[in-house]
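Exercise: predict the fold of this chain.
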Amino acid sequence: MRRILLLAATMALALVLVGGVAISKQPQDQPDKGSGSIPRSTVVKASFASGSGTNFLGVKVSDHGNLLSFESPQGQENAFSDAEGYAVCSTQVDDETVGERVNGHDTGSVFGGFAAPTFSQPNGAGTFPLTVTRRTIDGKFQLTQVWNKPDTVEKDVTFAMTLKNISGAPINGVFVSRSGDFDVGSSSLDQGATTADSTWQWDDGSSSADSSRVGTMLTALTFGTSHFPRVEQRPNWVAASGTRTGCFATNNLATPTSVQDLALRVTYEVGSFSAGQSKTVKFEYGRM
């Protein structure tokens, strides 16, 4: 492996020395950190496409409930496959020390803590709406995702995540996070920004790295529940022990950011759960 990495680094340096190589949108594979015999999320469970050209919208969701593709306009892929997903966290108390416990996480190629999913597709295999239900291996939670049929007019897709306490005892300090690696335009270099409810990244057409004028947004739609939109540096999100495996952005950037490689996140603070209690939060991915 070290020889392969050294060779890759040498080739990259040679390209730079030749001069002026643009940063392209190529997926960077991450190690499969799944648990047990559950395979990584690569199967397209629901797919949608409508329109053409600037009026096109294409959405694909995996068998684990990950967004595999968000394409709009046509030919503009905004999400890296195997690089979007979710995490469920709660407060853990050990010997009077309070800390974060990650009950389960899944961002495609890196995942752990969840059992195999079950599904419901009332309109038939491969279609929306899609319901994906999973339980955490620690026996604490059941997570149900309901992905709605994408909206061809607004060029977005909305989905709900319902968390249920199945442990038989109260659970405190619960958070639900959605995050992913999104690259708009023709390169991985974008600007990022947040509001109180949304996080997004875009190209305004003035950057030397990308002349496109496109953008992608992740929005929290459950306004009555505390939530925190964030923009992160992708290298910290995607690292071997990066923030993709948890609920929080440890390297939250002030926005608007400079042009760089970014990841997006929205975290809900859903609070305490009594035994058997369920709570639902909603999200939206959309073109901007």
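Check your answer against the key: The helical segments are 2-18, 234-238.
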